């Protein structure tokens, strides 16, 4: 009898100010709350037969600690690092250091926004980056990451 396949777990990292989704600049980020985003991700994950573990923090150190801790129980990361995308070498080093693939996602199209938002410190090390599709960016990123993991 074949062994049951181990459940694939994906860690979802939400960076600073994403706890304000639904109220912060809805024209850029939409009207859905973080809880609604996480529910949509959980629903999509079930359809892909994977599990997601979502975490949000406003502090860079908290995000890094979560990445270090979650790496031992996850196959990869879905990351919306918010403003840290453009500024945090430490967050990039944490993601690279734990040796798990990650996909960068953004609700808005950062390339169509302010110049300082157009540079990502994470993207060069990511499996891929998806932006500009609102909450669908997370779903597309999850699909892409799971596909990448299954290709091995």
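Q: What amino acid sequence fits the structure above?
A:
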């Amino acid at each position: 009898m074949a062994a049951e396949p181990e459940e694939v777990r994906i860690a979802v990292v939400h960076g600073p100010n994403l706890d304000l989704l639904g109220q912060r600049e809805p024209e850029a980020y939409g009207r859905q709350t973080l809880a609604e985003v996480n529910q949509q991700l959980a629903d999509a994950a079930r359809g892909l037969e994977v599990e997601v573990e979502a975490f949000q923090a406003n502090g860079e150190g908290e995000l890094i600690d979560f990445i270090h801790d979650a790496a031992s129980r996850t196959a990869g990361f879905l990351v919306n690092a918010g403003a840290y995308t453009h500024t945090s070498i430490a967050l990039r080093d944490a993601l690279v250091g734990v040796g798990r693939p990650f996909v960068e996602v953004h609700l808005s199209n950062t390339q169509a926004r302010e110049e300082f938002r157009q540079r990502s410190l994470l993207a060069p090390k990511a499996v891929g980056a998806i932006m500009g599709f609102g909450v669908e960016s997370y779903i597309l990123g999850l699909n892409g990451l799971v596909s990448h993991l299954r290709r091995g």
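Q: And what stands out in the fold?
A: The longest strand covers residues 8-14.
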